[in-house]
Amino acid sequence: MNMNGRIATLMVHTSPLDQAGIGDAGGMNIYVAESAKRMAAMGVSVDIFTRRNHGDLPKSIELAPGVMVHHIDAGPVEGVTKEELPQYIPELSDKFIKALEGKSAYDIIHSHYWISGEVGIPASKKLGIPLIHTMHTMAKVKNLALADGETPEPGSRVRGEMEVVASARGLIANTDSEAASLVSLYSACPDNVHVVSPGVDLYTFTPGQGRAAARSALGISPDAQVLTFVGRIQPHKGPELLIRSTAEMVSHSPHLRRKLIVYIIGGASGAGGAEVQRLQELVNWLGISDVVNFMPPVPRAELPQWYRAADLVCVPSYSESFGLVALEAQACGTPVVATAVGGLRTAIADGISGVLVDGHDPRAWSSVLARLLVEPQRRVLLSMGAIEHASHFGWDTTARGTLDIYDRVISEIQQQPVVSGQ
C-alpha cells in the first residue's frame, strides 16, 4: 500500500466512537479503531463509515490524524438493535455508494461483521473497488457452541455470511482456527483467506506499578483474592459460568470465602437488559452476594488498573474469534483462565500465560480457579509468561499484516488479463 493509499472501512452496527462493553460495542470497536490509527501512522488514509446512532453526532469527525469517521443516516437514529439492522441494509448500501462517489477514489473497501459485508457488496460491484472482509464472529460457529437457553443465530445471518464470503476478494481471519472454519463451514476459497492476529495497545496495557498499587488506587484490600470478568453481559460470554463456579468454590473450599472477591465488569449487550438482573438474582439465590460484585463498564483509560488488581482474569466464553480481554489482561501482567475455544487458544499460551479449561462445567472451573488461588508462586510464573506472551501482539503488527493483504489483493487484480469485448 503506497503512502497515499485510501481505505474505506465499513462497520455499520456499532461505532468506533462507542465505549466497549456497552450495548453492541466490544472488541471489534477496539480492533477497527486501533488498527486504523496504526495504518494512518504508516501513511495510509482511513475513512470509517458507520451508521449514525446518536442525533448530536456531526456528519464527519476526526478519530485520529489520518482517520475520519463518517456517519451514514439510515433508519431511526436511536433505538435500532443489531437484530433489527438487517432491514436497513439496502438503504445503508445506497447511502454508502453515494458517500464514496463524493470522495476521491478508494483502493479497498474493508467491511467488519456480516451486516457491513452485505452493505459493502453493492458498492464494491458498482464502483469496482475490491472488498476485504473480517467476520469477527460467525453464525455457524456460534450455533455449534450455544450457552444454555441462548437463541441460535438466524438463517438470514448464515445466508448473509455465505454471500459475503462468496463476494469478498479477501477474507481476514483472526486465527488459524477461524480461517479453517471459513473454509470448512462457509466453503471459502483457501487462497482468499488470510490470518492476521488482532493486537493489544502495549502502551496503555502494561504491568504499571503492579498489583499492590492498583489495589490501593481502587480501594481493594491488599490480601483479597480477586477474580475478574470484563465484557458484555450476555450468555455467550459466560458470566453465569463464573458465578456458578464461584458458588462451587466457596462450597468446597469455604476457607477461600473470607478473602474472595469476584468482579463482573460490563453492561448489558444490545437489547438484553434483563440478563444483568437475572444474574444478580442467581447470585442472591446461590447465596454469594457477599462475594460477587457487578460493576458498570469501565472507561478504557481505567481498565488497566482493574486488570492489574486481579489475581486472575476469567474469560469463560462459549466461542470467541479472538478474545481481546485476555490479551489486555496478560499485557497488564495478570494470568487468564479461559475456555479452550476458538481464538482463545491463540490469545493464551496454556500453562505459560494462563490456563485453558475444556468445556463449561462449573466444577471443573472451580477446581482450576481454587488451585491457582492457593498457589501464589505459580501465579507469579504465569504473570511473567503473560507479559511476554502479550508482547508479541502489538497493533502495529496487525496494521502491517492487514496492509500486506491489501497490497496482495490489489496486485492480483492488476495482474489479471483484461478481457476485451466480444
From TrEMBL:
<dbReference type="Pfam" id="PF13579">
    <property type="entry name" value="Glyco_trans_4_4"/>
</dbReference>
<dbReference type="InterPro" id="IPR028098">
    <property type="entry name" value="Glyco_trans_4-like_N"/>
</dbReference>
<dbReference type="GO" id="GO:0010125">
    <property type="term" value="P:mycothiol biosynthetic process"/>
</dbReference>
<dbReference type="Pfam" id="PF00534">
    <property type="entry name" value="Glycos_transf_1"/>
</dbReference>
<feature type="domain" description="Glycosyltransferase subfamily 4-like N-terminal">
    <location>
        <begin position="26"/>
        <end position="199"/>
    </location>
</feature>
<dbReference type="InterPro" id="IPR017814">
    <property type="entry name" value="Mycothiol_biosynthesis_MshA"/>
</dbReference>
<keyword id="KW-0479">Metal-binding</keyword>
<dbReference type="GO" id="GO:0102710">
    <property type="term" value="F:D-inositol-3-phosphate glycosyltransferase activity"/>
</dbReference>
<dbReference type="InterPro" id="IPR050194">
    <property type="entry name" value="Glycosyltransferase_grp1"/>
</dbReference>
<feature type="domain" description="Glycosyl transferase family 1">
    <location>
        <begin position="214"/>
        <end position="379"/>
    </location>
</feature>
<dbReference type="GO" id="GO:0046872">
    <property type="term" value="F:metal ion binding"/>
</dbReference>
<comment type="similarity">
    <text>Belongs to the glycosyltransferase group 1 family. MshA subfamily.</text>
</comment>
<dbReference type="GO" id="GO:0008375">
    <property type="term" value="F:acetylglucosaminyltransferase activity"/>
</dbReference>
<protein>
    <recommendedName>
        <fullName>D-inositol-3-phosphate glycosyltransferase</fullName>
        <ecNumber>2.4.1.250</ecNumber>
    </recommendedName>
</protein>
<keyword id="KW-0460">Magnesium</keyword>
<dbReference type="InterPro" id="IPR001296">
    <property type="entry name" value="Glyco_trans_1"/>
</dbReference>
